[in-house]
Structure formats: structure tokens, C-alpha cells
């Protein structure tokens, strides 16, 4: 098992190289010169363009650029961003931190809300509660996050003043964006939970648990839950990864300085070092999370063998 | 409205506003209005600009060109200091300009110094001295130009022409970049907290009229929702100054106009259609005129913009008082279907022909672009092919040789000279093609008329302002009316909310920013 | 271990098992598991199965019977050892060749419920072998065959559309049997096929199996705990203990002349379906803890619970062969038995 | 040993007369149905039996005759829907537990009554270690600490003879052999030393030595705690060894009841007789085993009259029309046989013929 | 869909099984698994409601020209941003186009985008997920690491590249959405397969000599699909909404195309002043998702014989 973990981490390195190589190729073929214009659409002075090209090695062929990136990466250097010309690691560090904070808050809400809703829906299948959960979850899906976020903002920040309008990274300012983010995934978690729970509820060992005289909540939260969470955990892993990758619309609405929007802006500006930095981080996050999830499988269901 | 405020911190009220993350706040590379807002409040240069495009002297006691117009002498106000105590003299200016133009700074705004002797050498690293600049006395700055330019003084209103203290070091001095020490009405309170905040406090040693605000708090907002947040922030009393999302303007106007908190300014910019004059679809001036006549600007301004944008009938903006002339573009004045068809016939445009219409997506252009496309289709029977691309890709497509049809574009002024519009957008040198034929300059329509180019050179050499203005007007008429090298669409009209309940004298300046140095708390 | 001596009859064995070993790793820790040993579920088992013969396998629960069965089916990969089917080592087969072999070797699983797909109807479950091996029954015939099979195992053909969870334990077991019979295989490995059936249905099933055997010359490996049923159906019986074969011989040899103490203990414990004999029956009560297959005793594995154990038993592993004392003698006691001190002992025979 | 209960139809003089304390468990005229797509399957059609403290009742019968379903109804763990108790009473210590609220019933399960399931693998939760599942009984019902509960679990595993209990307490169900799982189920049922254990084929997967040990263990517990035991099994050997009385089921009904010695000697129902004759015998080796001909009935369409009539060698017209009641069985001379009953129109011919 | 309606008849016949096969054996007609599932599905009220919603969507999509009151592309700049009224039931948008007609026409693209992208994603995801889950080891490693890349890779870059290759339109949107959601399907499926493949009935099928594809399709899939099913039903909705984000980022379908996500995206800045602009398309999405979720749940339940 220790070996398994080491092997997976080894794979991560390969995946990282693969992902960044693909990314480099994509960025390379994208039309447009990353340093060809100013923030607006004014053309840049050719001398400056020349200077920046040389500085960032953009005049070199793809292979060389990638090679440079890898050598620098090994040294822990992610390069300099093309607009503000700051260290990418320095630009991204606070953003990563912010995003991670928000993601963590969101995933907690997401899991609690989603699992509970799923549980209720499965237990009282086709009852009022089940339909209510279904309705709420569909609403969460059908109404885009900017709608939900804006409603929160005008109600709770502008009208009631409960939360700050402009997030400053504090706990209080995290609540609205976290809930906005959590709602969609909670809806999905609820659906997944409901689906698998229904299956498990009829299993023989649930009967055994009842026959043992266990209180209902023990039967549900221990015996049923544990057997139904594998798909849920899988999805939570993915969704946590997604959250850690930043949520552009929510971050934008609440002015949360995370990497989601940074990435979009970077893509729009072809600020490649930032893109590559974020993707490198994102791949690492996903590989590690999915590793964790895979390990969790073995804990959650001992029948699953990891190879 | 914003009447109560929580952040009445130390030493009186802080004026609060939101901007998006600037590229730089160091004059060396401050470029968009957010960056220059901060830079111009931290630094004071030779001139500022009035709303009508005239110069407002700051540290310049006088600025005089020689007869030929290729050498300028500026007398600088004596005994002013940087906030760290260093004197602001001719050397400080030379230091600042040299720093910006140096190769290592790779400054995006240094090109404004293009006309000064020795710029090329400095900018390409061949030299580390700015040969065109000399300190003729402690407070006398001599500027030698490589070609005559009687409007050079206007350029120096740009923040890149700021003086610099010795501590500034080179242009890529990161510490200084984030906490510049200047000679402006305000100084930094702490460093720039990227993506979070920039705080300014009054510079009590300011050499000119001191600011009345003790403190300015600038929140940095996400670009995609900044106007929304600014507006909501103003509504909830968190900001004293705000932009608004265009769709919300009518409601905001209704709410705040009556209370005197609504500011409007026809500012120094224009929205227009770029025409690829070397490619088939828009090669003939008649075809271009046909398209222009087919557009009902007024209807779109009213329907799509709720009457809050006004049609433009010239390229040069109304803020350029000396050169502005409405209705230069005769095809812009009013939709004229008959004329449109007439010109189309002349140009051989037939119903069913394709017209490519490019624009960059995600920047709020979708609506009016569709409206224009529809009108052109309806009037001329053309098949308009909309092609929306993300910004950078759109730019690449514009630059490419062979891109056909029309493209959405806009321009706004760096300083109040007609040249700042006409030269980059329409002169042959503005094409700046590379080996592969890409137009790397701002004249992506590749309009090229030797007569027009000559007129621009002549204008720069003309000392008499009135005469010069006349030449510029003629040049504009040639390019925009006769040749229809591009199609003006709308003026750049700006709206702001300002907390006039708490503050006196809040105005929008030439650069569309609040006039921080002049605002006073009630 | 030496190749077991050829039985007197000249028949070719259809299945030859040689030194079969299966160890399951034992691990500790939740996330970072490390192996701390192995459950030696099967630890060197050899036997032959002849065409048309039934080999019964009995033994303590957990001694590795099911594991042997799964190994024969190549459902587990053997740690070592070989299984020859008609001379071909099937432990190394895969793909088409394996499929062909599997058509001829079928298995009835011990756990009747978990081995039935809960989302398939009984008809689909029993019909599946025909779909996999379409050459066995033409399409039009299949439904009839399925109904016949249901009938044969004593299930009402009207239940064809029901799902496994709608059946009782014994009914499920019969579904498994029907599936095992479907292909008319040459060998059927039955892992406790009738344990959950009432005696009457059990009788039906056993009768059927015997009838099929007579008709098609089938071979069975019959694993069960019910010694009387094993005796009834088997030609030869193997007794396993803790992953090893303790004794093997014809049914009469094992039941009437057991020489291994474990067999003797086993036989003595058989309950008799006669309440009158409830008391007064001599039973060999095994004392001592059942050893763990992860850590089996040295030498003879049974020695920790054996009343005859001596020092030798701890030092030397007895081989499965005709014990010295009986060698050359023409007595039913002269059959393979892995005991240093093999002797006959009269125990109350089963049934 | 007490008398066997009367059928539901006949009033029970014992209870009426207040003869002695009520039985530990008394099932009266229990009906259980399953809704299926094709109709209602009547799995249990008026089962009545009783067990006393310290007594072992063996329930025999055709597979699919409703033994497990009756047991599940007693424990209150029927799959419902589709299953439901359609009628009858289940009296535990004299109280009809079908009328108890679920919370009260829950408290009975574990400390008062426990069940050993037929299918051990699917009855054990695959994702918890057996130690956890065993210890849970103590943690939940007795509030024991985790550590103590685990120690108890090991003790229980030892008690049911699982080798190396200490090392294997953290293993998961799928890592045990069939017999071992069954023993874990047994251990679980015994854990809280309940008043009543329902053992649904507890030893089918066990070898005879272990089976003997386990049955001894159950017997010992029973003696020690004066526990009632309902033993559902097909192993007539085990029945003979441990049962006090026997109830034979067919198609959801009790067709015969008798004290253990009597039944083997003189069955009073053709089905029972058939069963006994099906036991493999040494002298039958090589011959076909006797088997009752025909198929078990379809619960959706139970034959009219006696459900066994299509398979019965003695069936007459009356068997096809009238449902035979479970009536007391008497000697030829008319003396009622204590605790015996048969639901056959021709019980006389069967027992004495 | 049609199959469902058609076989109402024979379904009723199976109620009397004996009558169906009049031959000697009193065995019932062999009910196909499909008819069984159909029966359970139809018996489920919510599933039927869902089916009705989905059918409605298809009908509206097919009959859009008949239902729509206006040309969805016709601009009326004199009549922009009108609140809902008798003339324009759902109001008009910033270009004076009739919102009702656009919502109606939007169903076409919603159906195409939602279904096609999810279909593609499921196709890729299920095949790869099943292979990874069943074979484990190397296959699993390779597939799952590729999935990892797709999780982390920015959708926007992928979408831009696709658009640059194909031009803007519906197809690139479908492709972008599919390419970036298959990995979730794959991982979910793989996760439940991991537990199912250890079940005895899988072993039993192996022992029968069943081919790998058969084991996966007949035994593993039906028993592991439950979790994925709820996800898929939901994803039809998320795909439509995701299109809104693509539009918002400027890589969705062209802005003149009446598509719900597109409409919502362009209503973004009208939040609070012209709420009808996003509300109607959102409600349309909600109803669609609701339909698919109910159908998905119903199907899920119908496929599970244990549920009643
Ligand atoms: N997957 C596994 N992991 C670890 N140990 C296992 C596994 N499968 C079986 N074992 C162990 O191997 C041994 C033999 O198991 P097997 O199932 O072959 O016994 P058996 O003889 O069939 O017993 P029974 O008669 O009780 O079914 C047991 O100790 C069991 O715990
Ligand atoms: N969910 C269900 N739906 C329909 N019928 C069912 C269901 N559960 C059980 N049955 C039927 O109820 C009858 C009684 O089942 P039960 O499990 O009680 O039998 P049993 O006597 O325990 O048999 P065995 O000895 O084989 O375990 C069986 O015929 C079975 O088919
Ligand atoms: Mg076994
Ligand atoms: Mg049963």
C-alpha cells in the first residue's frame, strides 16, 4: 500500500508533464501574441514586444519553451507573469490560499447539506420531502450561480447588511460565496446519495442491523451511510477538486480573489505563465485528491482491492 | 445614497472607490485609467488636462518650443519635494523619463516619448542616456525632438512623463513599483495589496495646493463584476464613487440624478467600426459608405443603450475643443436607406453578398453588434456573418492579413491631441506591418493615403494652433468622410455616481477618474 | 509430495490436481496496509478426479474447500501448483481456451444469494449459460430448456420471471444448481449445493445428479458438511484439514475404516436423525483451539487437537500416502492417510 | 415440557384456565403476504406455534414454506413493502408485540430476542470489521467503551471457535469462510444473552464437529439462561439431537406438531413421512433416494383444500376441497397424544396405517 | 418513447399469465426485462410526470414554429426590454426580440446541446470508466490519469481551441461540454464498479465462461449504474447551464441564437432591473431538468427489482 501511494505520486509527475505539455501545445497554437498588445486593444510598441519576447523566451520553439519551463519548475520557479511581470508564485500564492479557504468552506456545506438532503429523499421516497428535495435540487441547477449570488448580495449584503458586499477574506465574507458555490454540488451530492441509498436500504445487512436492535440513526448513519457513500465520495473528490480549481463566476460576483477568475483572465490575456501555473497546480490537486479518494475506497469498502 | 460610512477612520473621512487591478501604479508602466488614477495622484508632472482638452500647468512654470518646433524648454516650479525629501528638479524629470524609456523597463507607455531624440537608442538598449534631454539649469529642462511637434507639451500630461526620486532605481525595481514615492497630492499608505487594496493618504508636503481629503481607500475589484460591485457598494454606502453596469443605468439615473449624485461626461473616446480597406468586401469607399448609411445609430442608441449613448458623427471627440467638429462623417448623421443602397450599387455590393463582422466576446458588445448586423442585413440585403472571438484571438485575427469585412473597435485618448487619434488609427505608419504582413500597429484597417499622411506631418510642424487645428480637421474629413476609412458609431459617454452629500467638488476628470486632489469633505 | 500412486483401475483421470497452494495476504493498518503474513487457505493439495466419478470433499469449515473449488475453476490464481484437465494445465489458460474449458467445468456456488445477479430474473440467470455458449442450445429451444431445468431442480416454472430476492434460501440454492447443470458439463464442482434444502428436495437434486452422471458420465466434486449425503453420492471421499488433505479413499474406506484421527473425530460427531440415540453416543470431543490458517502448527497440522500426538508429529510433516502399518496389506484401511500413527478405530458410522 | 399449542380455530383451554405462566413466545394465526407483480403471494397462512423459556422448537419444512418469513415477522424485519403481516398475533412474554410502537420493539431486539440469519455473507455488513459488528451490540445496548466491546467481541469469537480470534477480529466478512461467517452471526445473536433466539439454519455451513460444538454452546446457553430457541433447519440429525418439539411447515402452514421423539417414530402427516423417508440411508447407497414427487406449490395459486394434495399419495377428493385443520392427534384407542397435532384429513391412516 | 406507447396492449395481456401461453406447460409468458421495467416505470407517478415534461420539451422543440408568436430573430429596437405583456408574454430582450418565442425556440438547442453532450460524455465516460473499473491495474491507471488531466485542464482553453478549429456554433459547444464531463462519468462509474466487480455473481458469470464484455454489460453495469444514472439525468440540466458559462466567457453559441444558457448569460447585468430576462429561460431549464431527473429516478427505480 505504501508502494501504491508512492507509485501514484510517481504517476502524478508523469501526469503533470503530460498535462503541461498538452497545455503548452494548446497555448502555442492559439493565435495571438501573448505580448503583442496592451491590456486594452492598443498595439504595443514593437521594441517592447521584442524585449518581452526575448525576456520570456517566446521567440523559441515549443520544445525549448517547454524544456525551460520544466527546468525552472524543478527549481521551483514558475516564471513571471506577462502583464504585471511579477513572480507567478507570488501572484498565485494568495489566490490559492483564498480559493482553498473558500473551497473548504463550500465543500463542508456541500457535504452536510447534500448528504442530509439525499438521506431524507431516499428514506421518504416519493413523499413530500423527496419531491421537495428534488425540486430544490433542480432549482439549484436551473438557476445559474450568478443569479443566486446576486440575489444573496442584494438581500443579505445590500439590504440587510449581514455580510460584507466586498469580500475581504474574513470568515463572515466567506459565507455567501461558499453557500453559492455549495448549492449546485450539494444538489448533485443529494441526488447521488439518494440513488445509492435506495439500493443499500434494502440490503440484508440492514435487516441484520435492525434485528440487532440498533437505533434507527445508527442503522442509517452507520450501516446504510457507509455503504452508500462510495459514489458520493467520488463525486465529492471531483467537486472539491473543481472548487480548489477556483470558481470563476462566484469569485467574480463576490470579488473573491481566487484562482478561478485569475485563470480566466489569464486565458483571455494569454498570460501563459499564470495559466500554466494554475493548471500545474490543478493537476496536482486532482491527482492527489483522486488518490485520496481511491485510498478512501479501500477504507470505506474493504472488498475493494487496490492494485 | 451613500450617506453613512463605517470607515470614518483616522483623521477624517476616507474617500472610497473601487477599481480593477491595474497593471502598474508606478508611472513607469501605469497605462489604463485605474493605474494612471493612482500614478497621477502619487506624482505630479508638468501639466494636467482640463475637461475641454486644454492644458492645466502643474509643475511647469512655462513650456516653450523653438520656432521649428523640434526643441522644447520647460521651466519647472522651484523648491518642491518628493515625499521622501528629495528635490523635484530638472534632473528628477530626466531621471524619470530616462527610467521609463530604458530597455529594461520594457514600458508599455514609454512610446509616448518616441519623438524625443535618443529614445530609440535608449529603448533598444544601445545607450543608457536619454540624449534628447538636458538640464539647462537646476529647474530648466530642455527637450530635443527628432521631428517638429508643436503639441509635444500636451503629451507630457501623460503620467509616464513624471519626475522620479533617486530611490526609484530602475524601472523594474519591484519594491518601488508596489509602493512608489512621489511628489503628488497623495502618498502611499503601505504597499499595494494586490487584488485587495490601495490606500492613499494626503501628502502634507505637497508643493502645490494641498488635497483636502486626508485619505483615499481604493478597493480592487474583479474586472468582470467591478461595475456591478461599485454600483451595489455605492447603494449600500460603501463607496463614494461608482461606475454602473450599462443595463442598470436608467434605473440608477432615475434614482440619483435628482439628488445631484449623477455625473455624466462625453469623454475623449469613440466607438467605431474598423474596416479592412485592403480586402475585398470593404475595399471600395462606396461599400464602406453604404454600410455606414445603413446603420441607424439613433435607434440603437435609444433601443439598446436606453438613450444613454449618443451617436458619433466624427472621429475626434467633443472634448478636443479646438479640433472637434460634429457631422464630419456625413454618412453618420442619419440612417439613409436610399443612399446606402445607392452606394452599395456603386460599389457592386449585391444582396446576398457576405459581410464578415468580427467582434471580441464577453465585453458587452454582443447586443449592439447584433443590432448593427441586422440593420445592415435589412437595408443592404447582405449576409452578415458575425464572428465573435475571445479578446486575444480577436486581436490576432484583426492583425492577420486577409481578414475581411468589418470589426468592432474603440479608441480613447492618452492626451488631448488630434494626432493621438489620427496618427495611430489612420496613418500609414500606424499599420506597422511585420514580415508576414500582420498589421502590428493600431491601423489594422490598413488605410493608407499619402495625402493624409502628409497632412499629419504638416500639422505637427505648424506652430499656430488655429492653423494646425484646421489641418487636422481637414485630415479627419479626408479620412472619415471622403475615404470613409472607418465608421464612427458612438461617442464615449461616461456616467458616474458620486457621493455629493458628503463631499464637495466631486467631478469626473479628463481621464474619467474622480478629481481626488480637489474633493473636499463637507 | 510424490505423485499419488495410480489407482488400480486404468481410467485416465479427467482432472489432476498437483500441489495446489493458495495463500491470501494478511494485512494490517487502514490506509497504509502492510502485509503481516498470509492465510494459508490451501497449502499443497493433490488429488485426481476420474471420469464418471464423484469425489466428495469434507472437512472443517475454513479448511479451504471452497478455495480449492475456486482454484479448480481458475477463479482465483493459484499461488502455486497445477490443475490438469485432460492433461492440460488450466491454471495458465486464458481467453478462448479458458472459455472452452469452462464450458466443461461448472460450479455451484456455496453462497446461493450473493452468487445470483440481483437485477436478473431467474429465467435470465438460468438462461445465461446458453447465451454464453450458444452451441449448447439453439435459440428457440432455450426457453424450454430453462423451464425444464427449473422443473428438474424442483422450482415452479411459473417463477421464471421472479428475482432472486423473492426466493427463500433453498430456492436460491436450486437456482444455482440449475445454472450449473445447464451446460451439461463434464465436471461439476458443487460447493455445498444442497445445504439449504429440505431433505426431500435434497433427495430430488441428488437423484437428478446421479441420473445425469449415469447418462452423461459426469464427474462431480462434491463439497459438503453433511457426511451422510457425501457418503451417499461419492465414490471417493477426501478429508481436508487446515489447507491440506488429511485422508482420501473410497467411501467405504473412509467411512468404515478411517485411519486419520481427524476423520475419526469428524465421523463421530455426525448427528443421527434419531432422537432415541441422542444420549449414549460416543463422540470424540476435540479439545484445544482450532489453529489459525495464518499460523499453522509445525509438522502435522492436526497435532494440537490430536489425542495421539507425540513429539514426532510436531517435527515431521506426515505425507499423504498409505501408512506404513497398512502397506502391502489387503485391508480397506490401506488407503492414503497423512498420519504418523494411523490406525483403525471404530467410530459410529454416519447414517 | 408443555403442551403444544392448539390451532387458532380451537380456543386454547390452557390460557383460558390460567394453567401456568404464559409461553415465552406465542405466534397465533400469523399471516404474511408479499405483493408481487403477478399478484399477492401468501407466504405465511395462519402459522401458530409457541416456545417456552428453556425450550427448543425446531421448525422443519419444505424450503420456501415460510419458515424464514415467519421468523422475520417475529423479529419485525420483514421487507415492507412488499411484505406485510396480514393478520395474527405475536405474543412475547404475553404481550402482542405487533401492537407495540417501533421504538419499544427495537428495545426488544438484541437483549430480548435475537436472530441468526440464514445467509451469513449478505447478512453481515461488508464494510465493517466483524469485531466492530459484534462489539456494536455491547456499545449500543450496554454503552460499553470501544475497547471493552472489542474485548467482548474477541471473547464471543473464541466462544464460537473462530481460530485466532484476536488476530482476525479486525477482518472483514468476505475474508472468512462460509462457516466462519455463520459462526459470527451466531456469536452476534448470543451476544446479549437474549430470552429468545431464532436460529435460521445456523449450522448448514458448518462441519459436523463445529456444528456439534455450536449446538452444544447454544444448548449450554439455553440451560444457563433458560433461553427459548427456535431452530429452523433441514438437518434432521441436528433436530433429533437438540429439539424438544417440532413444527413442520408446508406452504405457509403448520402441518404437523409433535415432541421430538414422537415425530421420528410415527409421523402423522404424509409430508412429514415423506421427509423422513428422504433421509439418505446407508442401505440405500447406490439407489435412488426417496423423494416426494411433484413440485412445491406456487404461493400465488395455492391448491385448494390441502396444499399438499397434488403431491400426496393418500389424497382423496376431500383433500382437494377442504382445508384440513391442525387437530390433536390421538392413539388408536382415543387417548390424546400430548403435544401432537396434524393437519391432515387422514392423519389416523398416516400415523397408524 | 414510441416503444412505450406501442406495447401498452401486450403488457395488459401478461396480467393473466396462464392465458398467454395456452400450451401444456402452465408457465407464464416470459416477461422480458424491458416490459418489466416499463411496467414498474409506468406505475411510478413522478416518473410519468417527468416523462410528460420531457415529451413536452420534445413537442415544443419540434413544433416551435407553430407555438412561437414571433420570429425569434426579429429585432425591434423601438421595443426593447419590454416587461411581459399581452403582446410579448415573456417580454422582450435588449434588442426587442420576443422572449417567449426565443424560449420556445431555445428548447431545440437545449435538447440538442443537453442531450448530445451528455450522450457523448456518457458514451466516452461509461466505456472508459467500465474498462478502468473492471480491469483495474494498468488500464485503470492510464484511463484515470487521463481523466485527472481532463479534470484539471481549463475548459475555456479547450473550448477556445475547439472553436478555433471548428468555428462557433452548436457542435463545438457540445464537444466542449462532452469532452470536459466524461471524466466525471468515468470516475463515478468506475467507483461503483470497483465494489460490484468483487461480487459473487460476477465470479459466477466468469465461471460460466462469460466474456468480459458480457460480464461488464450484463452483470456489472446494471448493478453499478444507479449512482451514475442520477448524475446523468441531472447533467442534462447542468450542460444547458454550463452553456451559459461558455456564452458568458464568449465561447458559447453565437449570441443571436435563441438558447437558454445564452439568454441567461446576456441577462446577467440586468439582474434586479429586468429579472424576466433570466427568469423565463431559467424556469425552462428547471422544468427540463425536473423532467429528466424524474425520468432518471423512475428509470433507476424501475431497473432495481428490489424496490417496490
Ligand atoms: N479473500 C480472502 N482473504 C483472506 N482470507 C480468505 C479469503 N478467502 C478465504 N480466506 C480464508 O481462507 C480459509 C479457507 O476458506 P474457504 O472458504 O476455502 O473455506 P471452506 O473450507 O470453504 O469453509 P466453509 O466450509 O466454512 O465454507 C479461511 O480461513 C478463510 O478465512
Ligand atoms: N420479497 C418477496 N416477494 C415475493 N415472495 C417472497 C418474497 N420473500 C419471500 N417470498 C416467498 O415467500 C416464501 C417463503 O419464504 P421463506 O424465506 O420463509 O422460506 P423458508 O421456509 O425459509 O425456505 P428455506 O428453507 O428455503 O429458507 C417463498 O416461497 C418465497 O418465494
Ligand atoms: Mg466454503
Ligand atoms: Mg429460509
TrEMBL record, chain A:
Signal peptide as annotated in the record: none
Cell membrane found in the keyword field: yes
Pfam families, sorted: BPD_transp_1, BPD_transp_1_N
Start and end residues of each ABC transmembrane type-1 domain: 96-297
Sections of the chain in a coiled coil: none
Subcellular location: Cell membrane
Transmembrane segments: 12-30, 102-124, 131-154, 174-193, 232-254, 274-300
Keywords: Cell membrane, Membrane, Transmembrane, Transmembrane helix, Transport
PROSITE patterns per record: ABC_TM1, PROKAR_LIPOPROTEIN
Cross-referenced SUPFAM superfamilies: MetI-like
Family: Belongs to the binding-protein-dependent transport system permease family.
Name of this protein: ABC transporter permease
Organism of derivation: Streptomyces blastmyceticus
Automatic annotation (TrEMBL), chain C:
InterPro entries in UniProt: AAA+_ATPase, ABC_transp_ATP-bind, ABC_transporter-like_ATP-bd, ABC_transporter-like_CS, Oligopep_ABC_C, P-loop_NTPase
Entry keywords, A to Z: ATP-binding, Nucleotide-binding, Transport
All copies of domain ABC transporter, residue ranges: 15-267
Claim: Transport is one of the keywords in the record: yes
Keyword ATP-binding belongs to the record: yes
Family that this chain belongs to: Belongs to the ABC transporter superfamily.
Protein name as annotated: Dipeptide ABC transporter ATP-binding protein
Source organism (scientific name): Streptomyces blastmyceticus
Automatic annotation (TrEMBL), chain D:
Alphabetized InterPro entries for the sequence: AAA+_ATPase, ABC_Ni/Peptide_Import, ABC_transporter-like_ATP-bd, ABC_transporter-like_CS, Oligopep_ABC_C, P-loop_NTPase
Membrane topology listed for this record: Peripheral membrane protein
Compositionally biased region (Low complexity): 1-14
Keywords (A to Z) from UniProt: ATP-binding, Cell membrane, Membrane, Nucleotide-binding, Transport
Compartment(s) where it occurs, according to its Swiss-Prot or TrEMBL record: Cell membrane
Signal peptide extent: none
Predominant localisation class: membrane
Pfam family name, one: ABC_tran
ABC transporter domain span: 27-276
CDD domains reported in the protein's UniProt record: ABC_NikE_OppD_transporters (cd03257)
Gene3D superfamilies with a match to the protein in the record: P-loop containing nucleotide triphosphate hydrolases
Gene Ontology MF: a single term: ATP binding
PROSITE patterns (alphabetical): ABC_TRANSPORTER_1, ABC_TRANSPORTER_2
Keyword Ribonucleoprotein: no
UniProt-annotated stretches for the region Disordered: 1-21
Keyword Membrane assigned: yes
Entry similarity comment: Belongs to the ABC transporter superfamily.
Listed PANTHER family: DIPEPTIDE TRANSPORT ATP-BINDING PROTEIN DPPD, OLIGOPEPTIDE TRANSPORT ATP-BINDING PROTEIN APPD
Name of this chain's protein: ABC transporter ATP-binding protein
From TrEMBL, chain E:
Pfam families per UniProt: BPD_transp_1 (PF00528), OppC_N (PF12911)
Alphabetical list of InterPro entries matching this protein: BP-dependent_transpt_permease (IPR050366), MetI-like (IPR000515), MetI-like_sf (IPR035906), OppC_N (IPR025966)
Family: Belongs to the binding-protein-dependent transport system permease family.
Name of the encoding gene: gsiD
Protein localization: Cell membrane
Membrane topology qualifier: Multi-pass membrane protein
SUPFAM superfamilies: MetI-like
Protein name per its UniProtKB record: Glutathione ABC transporter permease GsiD
Signal peptide, first to last residue: none
PANTHER family given in the database record: D,D-DIPEPTIDE TRANSPORT SYSTEM PERMEASE PROTEIN DDPC-RELATED (PTHR43386:SF1), OLIGOPEPTIDE TRANSPORT SYSTEM PERMEASE PROTEIN APPC (PTHR43386)
Occurrences of domain ABC transmembrane type-1 (ranges): 107-296
Region (Disordered): 1-27
Segments crossing the lipid bilayer: 46-68, 109-134, 146-166, 172-189, 224-242, 278-299
